[in-house]
Amino acid sequence: MSHEQSAESKKQFRSFVLQLKRLNPSWKPKDITNFLIDDAMLALVPFSSFGASNDSVWYRISVGTCSVEEIERIIVNLRTALSQLT
User: Fold this and answer.
1) Secondary structure (3-state) at 20
2) Nearest 5 degrees, angle CA 23-CA 52-CA 4?
3) Which of 35, 51, 62, 73 is deepest in the core (most CB within 10 A)?
């Protein structure tokens, strides 16, 4: 993945998290984390694990060892979970 693609992916994910907060204004960062892990089935680590504040909505997600097919399934899981919110 090129630097430009990586930057765009980060921007899209941040936009996604902000959209979750707009759809569910009462959600705390822990609610967003639980949604991403339980409903969207994403494996992630909240930045609070690296010393950021507990109210941070930044996450570390790695797809470095995933195949393209696995990444496509991840995207489908995410879209399915998001469709349940609207």
Assistant:
1) helix
2) 70
3) 35
Listed in sequence order, the DSSP H helices in 1-86 are 3-23, 29-34, 68-83
Tokens (6 digits) for 66: 């995933």
The pLDDT tens digits for 8-29 are 767 777 777 778 888 888 988 8
- Residue 78 makes CB contacts below 8 A (sequence gap 6+) with 16, 40, 42
CA 83, 7, 34, 53 torsion-angle sign: negative
Q: How far apart are alpha carbons 49 and 60 in whole angstroms?
A: 10
Domain ranges of the chain: 3-83
- Asked whether the beta carbons of 52 and 24 are under 8 A apart, the reply is no
Query: Does the predicted model carry a pTM greater than 0.90?
Result: no
Extract the runs of DSSP E, i.e. beta strands, from the chain.
45-46, 59-60
Smallest CA-to-CA distance from 74 within 13, 7, 2, 25 is with 13
